[in-house]
Write the structure tokens for this entry.
Amino acid sequence: MSNFAMGRPGKRSRTELRLVCCAKNRDEMKQLEEKEDCFVIDFDPNDELDISNPSLSNDCHVIAEKGQVACRDYLHPRYACAKFPFKKTPHDIHCKRCYCYVCDLVAPCKDWVGLGPNGHCHAFYNKYWKNVKKLRRAYVKLLAISKRLDDFLMSSNI
Ligand SMILES: [Zn+2]
Ligand SMILES: [Zn+2]
């Protein structure tokens, strides 16, 4: 028989599947479903992705795309861009859905390039940039406070 057993979790758990079988044809599937107390799938999980295959162990290959790809179809920080990989492409280029990690604004922000190594296009998730992000937030808050203070002083004619 060409069925494939994925494992037998403990007997106590009712919600867990006791056995996952794989049948190669529909008749076999029906037979299994009737006779065996197990969940039958109509493909062999090993056919799709063999993680024991050494050629796959060091690198990640896209086998198939199903639905949306998080880092290409949704907003993402520049360093996580799937269209322009951070390690292999110049940091200042960006796709339509890249945003600045520091400013939380759609790229390019006003400090995207032009600050040398401190340009926001180079930002990625590490301690240094986390601090830059925190400082920038504090600065933006201070600016807002000082503007409100200005407005208050102006309106009260002091
Ligand atoms: Zn992008
Ligand atoms: Zn920025």
User: Anything to note?
Assistant: The first strand starts at residue 20 and ends at 22. Residues 1-22, 43-60 have pLDDT under 50 and may be disordered.
